[in-house]
Amino acid sequence: MNSLAGESVAVVGAGVGGLSTACYLADAGADVRVIEKNEQFGGRASVLERDGFRFDMGPSWYLMPDVFERFFGRFDRTPTDYYDLAHLDPHYRIFFKDGDEVDITPDLAETKALFESYEDGAGEALERYLEKSRENYEVGMEHFVYEDRTRVRDYLDLDVARQARGLSLLGTMQGHVEKYFDHPKLQQIMQYTLVFLGGSPNNTPALYNLMSHVDFTLGVWYPEGGVGGVIDAFVELGRELGVTYETNQPVTAIKGRYGAFLVETDPRDGEDSPARPSAFEADIVVSNADYAHTEQELLAPDQRGYDPDYWESRTYAPSAFLLYLGLEGEVDELAHHTLVLPTEWNQHFEQIFEEPAWPDDPAYYCCVPSKTDDDVAPDGHSTLFVLVPIAPGLEDTPERRERYREQVLEDIAANTGEDLRDRIVLEERFSVEDFADRYNSYRGTALGMAHTLSQTALFRPPHRSKEVDGLYFTGSYTTPGIGVPMCLISGELTADAVFEDYGG
């Protein structure tokens, strides 16, 4: 007998965490309905389609392929049942603003030689660094990511202590990287992945050196149809398991508790989802909406686990200034993934975390999926989006966006040799206010709560509501944290909590 047979579940929000949780709960026999505010699935992993151009609006890197294989494997499927993968070569290109240009490729010997060219002994140092990264990844994933240790006493167990021995649990990424490399450019190469975690070298725990194993060893991939194609796969799998979906249904309130929930919505007309009744009954509710929004806006005051001061005191991951550009012709100088980095990037991080301001000399990312996928742009054209991490909560006016757009396009031309300005046939912009409006994102953060030492593991908000029986949370605010793979795992951990509490 399925352990959740007879239980009805409403999942609020069709981001990765919500889609993942829905699959696990439906597979266990629950009657699962996903209720989504916007017109499409994926949350921040939405897709923008205009005039033959297709853009991943948010996540665009396919990392940690083992996590996706494990997820689909839990349902006796594989990722290739839904989409194909291309291994990118180069993984990515870096333009330093002093004129240097490097490619990071799948060939580790080539990468070691590159490091050696910057610093004597750096090639062997890279090998040692990656061995430590591999150890942290394998132990961390098995014992601390796939297992939700929510209490201090969970870390006092002797077996846990044995597994944790040797992990880089304390210190910052900056201090850890400095033990291996002196050259600032090599340090930057090892730390750029912190952008995926919403942190900086000086506030992210050294444990996250595991991301270098993800980058250099597991590789960088491109899924057919982009990350949007992966979202389609999650939805298709859910349907195969019996999940039903409602789009254009902004949730306005969550009332009740286990066995007697009412999820109220303000429905919008849509092509696939005409306006429907504005309330859904459920035995159990899982919120994949922004955690702070759920607590502060959807729950009554006596049902909230945290007060406004808690949310105000958190450190948030950056927001972003995004340009989605449809271009005439090819973009020869840029790779599928390209990073443009100042030779001194501390100022940019300071203008995100210390003294919030629009960055004067930004580090940023360019993605050209049409390099790999012919279906994302019309013939003779290219798709490109540009992402500049910026502080959440910044004043975001049309005038500011226009000025910053000019600054960024000029910077691309100056530092990559690719002048885009006379070739743009389609342009859309997205920034702080859009994150807040489209995703109900606290202060317009693009990712959620940053991975500082005091906001990692058991210090993140829990999957179970602290006040309401039968209410759960999933997604980037919970463990294990930020990023598509982590949100996929978050869905599993949330489902495990539901099984533990209400499974037959």
From TrEMBL:
Keyword NAD part of the UniProt annotation: no
Nuclease as UniProt keyword: no
GO molecular function: oxidoreductase activity
GO BP: carotenoid biosynthetic process
Pathway info: Carotenoid biosynthesis
InterPro entries on file: Amino_oxidase, Carotenoid/retinoid_OxRdtase, FAD/NAD-bd_sf
Domain Amine oxidase: 17-498
Keywords for this protein: Carotenoid biosynthesis, Oxidoreductase
SUPFAM superfamilies in UniProt: FAD/NAD(P)-binding domain
Full protein name: Phytoene dehydrogenase
